[in-house]
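hiii so um. not sure if this is the right channel but i have a protein structure encoded as tokens and i wanna go backwards to a sequence. like what aa goes where. can anyone help
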């Protein structure tokens, strides 16, 4: 522990001015150099946007596939019947059902990272609004989680598709991988995540849209990225 503390102190000293701007690749490597924990930390990106999400025309929300995956096993539940249910299971869904899945969730079994439904099941799913809504799990056609093609939606969720949504303060946070990922894999995920948010710029956004971007690890510092490296 003493060695780790000394390493952390010497590396933190290298950071110097906390207002310094870093290149993306430089920041990724520095987070790895600063790592002092034994567990596989997550790497996250935070974006400060020039939007006020209280206005509907300034909401930023969507899905993006991280090309290098997330490093996490996403549990997926699907509301479907018949052939659609079989297709969802074949695609790797962890739980598939209808009224039985409704009862299971009402009983408190909500350990899922994504909930998907066919359009005809929304009458059932709607009864879970107060349960799924606060957890951000309510299926939504705009996000592709209410769809007749449940197999594709399951595969996307399992292969690294994540949702992003701007918070009240105009900030979006997202996990872009694990410390054990190669630097190029993390950079590819960073690019995909930021590009998706740049493309999702809402019509009501005024002035500078992308105001600040930083990357951090679970236990590490936040490193500010030089926006000159980011298009948009």
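sure thing!! here u go:
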């Amino acid at each position: 522990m003493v060695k780790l503390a000394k390493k952390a102190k010497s590396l933190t000293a290298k950071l110097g001015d906390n207002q310094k701007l870093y290149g993306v690749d430089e920041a990724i490597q520095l987070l790895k150099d600063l790592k002092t924990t034994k567990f596989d930390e997550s790497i996250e990106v935070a974006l400060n946007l020039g939007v006020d999400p209280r206005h509907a025309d300034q909401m930023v929300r969507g899905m993006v596939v991280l090309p290098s995956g997330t490093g996490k096993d996403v549990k997926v539940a699907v509301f479907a019947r018949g052939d659609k249910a079989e297709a969802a299971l074949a695609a790797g869904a962890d739980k598939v059902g209808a009224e039985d899945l409704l009862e299971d969730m009402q009983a408190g079994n909500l350990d899922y990272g994504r909930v998907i439904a066919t359009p005809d099941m929304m009458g059932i799913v709607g009864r879970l609004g107060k349960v799924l809504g606060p957890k951000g799990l309510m299926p939504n056609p705009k996000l592709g989680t209410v769809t007749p093609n449940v197999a594709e939606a399951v595969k996307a969720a399992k292969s690294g598709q994540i949702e992003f949504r701007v918070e009240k303060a105009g900030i979006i946070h997202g996990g872009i991988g694990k410390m054990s990922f190669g630097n190029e894999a993390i950079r590819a995920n960073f690019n995909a995540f930021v590009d998706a948010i740049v493309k999702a710029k809402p019509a009501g956004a005024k002035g500078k849209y992308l105001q600040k971007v930083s990357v951090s690890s679970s236990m590490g510092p936040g490193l500010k990225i030089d926006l000159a490296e980011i298009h948009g």
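oh and Strands lie at 21-22, 42-49, 61-65, 76-79, 95-97, 114-117, 161-165, 171-178, 210-217, 223-225.
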